[in-house]
Amino acid sequence: MLVGFTATAGGIGWSCKRIPGSQYQLEGILSRFESATPDIEGTIWLGAAVGFLESVRMDEIRQHSLELGKRLVKGLKSVPGLKVYPESTRDRIGIAAFVLPGIPADDLSRALCDTLAS
């Protein structure tokens, strides 16, 4: 029989457990890939982000995000042939899906990174 251990407070652990009458059973997907030291730095930054969001009015954040979304779509629509999905800017935050027919997505993404990442 294979006996497994799980890490509860960080450190190295195994991703399986002993099952009577069976060799082993894998842990659930999260336990299987998170058996080492917990992300302490990420937890601290998450706390800082939540603290910031609590100090700012959420309706101000929403309004700013909607303005960024409109600006993004307006800029994208100025590119000849580019198609934005969905076309509506109503309630759109600063994220958009788009295609430029005839240009593969990986080439377009590389061109955007090379041009705008400066």
Task: Write structural notes for this entry.
The chain is mainly alpha-helical and 118 residues long. It has two domains: 38 residues, no CATH class; 76 residues, no CATH class. It has four helices and four strands. A two-stranded antiparallel ribbon has the order 1-2. 0% of the residues are buried. The N terminus is likely disordered.
What is this structure, in a nutshell?
With 118 residues, this protein is mainly alpha-helical. Helix content is 45%, strand content 8%.
Helix content: 40-55%
- Give the SSE string: EEHHHEEH
What is the mean predicted local confidence, pLDDT? 75
Q: From the alpha carbons, calculate the radius of gyration and give it in angstroms.
A: 23 Å
C-alpha geometry: extended
Low-confidence segments, given as residue ranges, are 1-14
- Secondary-structure content class: mainly alpha
Going across the biggest sheet, name each strand in turn. Answer: 1-2
Number of domains: 2
Distance between the termini: 57 Å
The fraction of residues assigned to DSSP E strands is: 5-15%
DSSP summary, beta strand count: 4
The helix count comes to 4
Which features characterize this protein?
118 residues, mainly alpha, two-stranded antiparallel sheet, 4 helices, 4 strands
SSE order and pairing:
Elements: E1 16-17, E2 25-26, H1 29-33, H2 40-55, H3 58-77, E3 83-85, E4 97-99, H4 105-116
Antiparallel strand pairs: 1-2, 3-4
